[in-house]
Amino acid sequence: MISQHSWQAPAINRKKVGDMTVTMLSDGYLDVSFELLSGIDGSRAEELLQKRGASALPRININVYVIQTRERTILVDSGAGGINGWSGWLQVALAAAAVRGRLLDRAASDNQAVSGMHFNLPTIGKVVRDSSSFTLNYDLWSPAV
After folding, report:
1. Distance CA 91, CA 103 (A)
2. Which residue of 21, 90, 111, 135 shows the fewest CB atoms closer than 10 Å?
3. Is-contact 131 105, C-beta < 8 A?
4. The organism sits in which domain of life (predicted)?
5. For residue 23, what are the β-bridge partners?
């Protein structure tokens, strides 16, 4: 009998930074072109990877971060949401990372707002479609120029 996994356990990494807890969640990956890189020719990048025995497939990890303080929960990015078959594992990662249900539901039960930055529509819809009980505040953050 052959045993096959139907789903990979999500990649989760949690760190304490001062009074904050920062959790990295993997939403999966995106296959792209080396031509998106700057400072190196695509064929040169592929050659270097092959020399080292690494896959020459230009695969980018799609990571989402959850920053928790006593006052708020901040969701940084919303992943790719499974659009065009890319990733879409954020709901599973959120469920696996939380001690008391999904982080968004936990924030709602604690009467906290969830703030977000770098949300792409319609991918944010994939995050909130089953979690209508929390408040989502959009904060516009921009680096200093």
Report:
1. 10
2. 111
3. yes
4. Bacteria
5. 14, 66
Cis peptide before 143 (omega within 30 of 0): no
Yes or no: say if 75 and 114 are a contact pair by the CB < 8 Å rule. yes
In the numeric block, which tokens belong to residue 85? 């078959």
pLDDT digits (tens, 9 = 90+) for 17-75: 999 999 998 888 888 888 877 898 888 988 998 999 988 888 888 888 888 888 777 77
**pLDDT band, residue 123 (cuts 50/70/90):** low
Cα–Cα distance list, 72 to 45, 65, 75, 99, 130 (Å): 41, 14, 10, 17, 20
Is 34 inside a domain boundary? no
Q: What domain count does the chain have? A: 1
Give the pLDDT mean for 117-126.
Answer: 55
4 within a domain of the structure (yes/no): no
* Cβ pair 78, 26 in contact under 8 A: no
Q: Which two tokens stand for residue 9?
A: 């356990």
Q: Is 119 among the domain residues?
A: yes
| pLDDT for 89 beyond 80 | no
